[in-house]
Amino acid sequence: MIPLVLHQIGADKSISRHLEGFRRSWKIWNPDLEVIYWSDATLRQFIAQHVPTFLPLFDSYSKGVCRADLGRYLLLQYFGGIYADLDCQCLRPLAPLLEDRELLIATEPAIHHLQKNVILRGLKRVICPSFIASIPGHPFWSDVLLSLTKYPPSSIKTTDDVLDATGPFLLSRVLVALPKYKQYLVPEGLINPFSKADCWQGLVFDPIFWLERSSGAYVAHYWDGSWFRSSRGWQAFVPSQAPVSLQEPEGPITIPGVVKRNTGDQTDLPLISCLMVVTEVSLLATLAVECFLEQSYPNKELILVDASCDDQLESKVRLLNSGLIRYVLIESKSVMLSSLNDIAFDCALGGYICQWNSDDLHDPLRLEMQWKVMQSTDAQASVLARRMTWWPGEHTLSISSYLDEYQSVMCERSLFPRCSAVHSDAPCNIVNLMNNTVRIAKIDLPRLCIHINFNSVSFSCDLSKSSDIQSYTCLWTNCDCERLLNELDRRIPLLRCLFFENKAPLNVCNTIDVPKKDPKILILTPVRNAQEYLSRYESLLQSLTFDSRRLSFAWLEGDSTDQTFPVLEQLRVSLSNKFNRISLHRFNHYPSCSNAERWSRVLQRDRRERLARVRNQLLMMALEDEDWVLWLDVDVCDYPSDLLERLLAAGRDIVTANCLNAFDQPFDLNSYRLQRESPQADTLPEEYMFDGLYQPPIGFARNYVNDFRDQSLIELDSVGATVLLIRADLHRQGLNFPPYPMNSLIETEALSLMARNLGVRSWALPQLIVRHD
User: Fold this and answer.
1) Rounded (10°) angle between helices 534-543 and 564-575
2) From CA 612, how far away is CA 629, in angstroms rounded?
3) Which of 83-97, 262-276, 285-299, 476-490 has the lowest mean pLDDT?
4) For residue 758, what is the DSSP state?
């Protein structure tokens, strides 16, 4: 079995900013993956300690890429696991790719086999060493290392010499000499969906191209080539020339004032003033500021006019401590938006003005691309012809139609119109004010700006029929949306804005970062007639390895006919000194049905409505300063002692385990994923509607968590509450268990639906097994 360890190699301890998104992708899709980064120094230490016979060879290489090649082969021979170049991106969980394999190698794209240096060597295929997986000690590595030692380091002069001595041509010759290893080849499309030309010409920057080419891939290699050419940083994998159309003015051209033109000297670039007006504090505003600071264009300033009457944004700006930001506080909320825009304009010092919207997130190249286009076309203004929009609540991404995105205008200062002349509190369409007198260059790179729309959209099954959404040229939902979001997040902090609330600022958490080090957890358990389970329940709680000082419990008992309440009171007293806090509450509103009747179709509406009200009552009574809430059934009969640590390590805001019965069958039938190929994924058949709830047969158009036992983490459409971890801030912001049908779903199923509308997804750990009576 291939160890779930990823090895990556770099020249020093730092990683280029434009590659950090690739590095994040491995943990996003594989939370259990251990990632080890080897610098040139630590790689040498490994060789000296574990394979010292290769140290003289390692030290003899004058080129860092040769040392890295030798290092990756030795690491995989010694430790096993996965090796990936820093410009490799993970696109989905690796478990299905690695299953039942002892070695995995792939060829480069077929178009590479037509290169002159490949043909001259008589190679029919080129083996790519950028992504390899192996068990420890596989014989392939002994043969590779034997072949490698035959090429003297002193003879390595050119790029092709490197390929021959330690790189792809070396591996290709080993496969030619030893065809028995061909059985370990996987189709190139699984690992290398893009060619060098696709990446170097910036085709992969097109969301449509990227999604279509990578649809079946687990990994994508981007061919950064920093070992033989200078790294392009943020310019890598982006078109060097943007598609541009030029709009000539309808009337006479306005002659601009004196504006400094670029002489070609990077230190002689004009100052661009970005204007950003904030009327309500949100996470998006702070992320828009961070996007400004990431801009590749060097001579810039941000004029931030804050009329939110809240000190959060000011505190954020102080923490950033950047001389590029000039903060302007407006203490009155009565100032019109047009006047606020003019205040920002009056504070600007630049010869060029650029709109910087507070609910848009911007690619690091936006300013640079707009400036270059103006210079190359002799335009007086530039604007994005299209942009992308993300609706987190609808799990949908789109590209707009050609609307001339007026909130992206960059213009010579003397031509920039004042908004107060419009006398409106609505956003000012500057493009309309300039059309008659200004030459405008329109750039068609929608990825440069992504608008975030948290407003709910009214639609049922077909988003394209909604009248609430602007017209668009492309639209993606569900799995395609998720894949594309992770790609866009490589350059823009999209996934950090999942937590947003219009009326009040949130204690925002980054859903893809590691949870904070010392979280507090509150375990909530509703109980009725549970006396027979309490001894085992206590024993399991005491077996938890999580720090007891940060662990609290709350129980809500009601309608019991046995001794549940007094036993719980005794339990509360006996455990009070062992845990942070324990509370016991009473609320008589439990379902009256027995365990034998609990699955009856006719009782579901009343039973689950009562359960929802009980859960909400317990939540209201018990939640204090905890960071997480774990919902735990009292009759769960077994779970691992590191249950809490494993749930937290998933790094998700709603996550459940794989809850099975004594026969190893799914117990929690409310935790499921809809089968996308089935029409039931979009519509609910009337034949299974009963008492206002959708109640299909078991397994109808659904897959339960146990169906994905070979995967470490999966997304769900619905969760149950047998074992359910939820970030406490979600509950504080109103996420509860609806006691009434929402889209014909109720209680925990409706909670998942409500969360999705807030832009929060539900997840499960299929390999974390919990047993239920």
Assistant:
1) 20
2) 16
3) 262-276
4) T
Q: What is the pLDDT of residue 437?
A: 74
Backbone angles phi, psi at 509, to 5 degrees: -125, 145
The per-residue pLDDT for range 283-294, each reduced to its tens digit, is 788 899 999 999
What's the token pair of residue 691? 């008492």
SS3 435: coil
pTM over 0.85: no
What DSSP designation does 327 have?
A: E
Q: What is the pLDDT of residues 121-144, one digit of tens each?
A: 999 999 999 999 999 999 999 999
DSSP 154: G
Q: Which structure tokens are listed for 540?
A: 């399991």
Tens-digit pLDDT profile for residues 656-714: 999 999 888 999 999 999 885 544 444 556 677 776 667 777 778 889 999 999 888 89
pLDDT at 535 over 50: yes
pLDDT score at 596: 54
**Which residue has tokens 């659904």?**
702
Predicted confidence at residue 584, as pLDDT, reads 93
Tokens 């609330």: give the residue. 501
Distances (CA, A) of 708 to 95, 479, 486, 530, 672: 11, 16, 22, 32, 10
- Strand pairing category for 672-674 and 702-704: antiparallel
Q: What Rg value do the Cα atoms of the chain yield, rounded? A: 30
- Give the rounded distance of the alpha carbon of 518 from its chain centre: 23
For 373, the token pair is 């286009």
Total length of the chain: 773
Who contacts 707 (Cβ-Cβ below 8 Å, separation ≥6)? none
Q: How far is CA 448 from CA 211, 372, 655, in A?
A: 17, 14, 33
How far CA 747 is from CA of 525, 596, 717, 741, 770, in Å, comes to 15, 20, 14, 8, 21
DSSP for 266-321? GGGPPPEEEEEEESS--HHHHHHHHHHHT-S-SSEEEEEEE-SS-SHHHHHHHHH-
Strands (E), 150-208: 185-186
CA pair distance 496, 484, nearest whole angstrom: 15
Scored b (16 or more CB within 10 A) or e, 594-616 reads: eeeeeeeeeebbebbbbbbbbbb
Q: Name residues whose C-beta falls within 8 Å of residue 615's C-beta, 6 or more positions apart in sequence.
A: 524, 526, 631, 721, 736, 737, 747
Q: What tokens does 606 get?
A: 């009343």
CB 633 within 8 A of CB 767: no
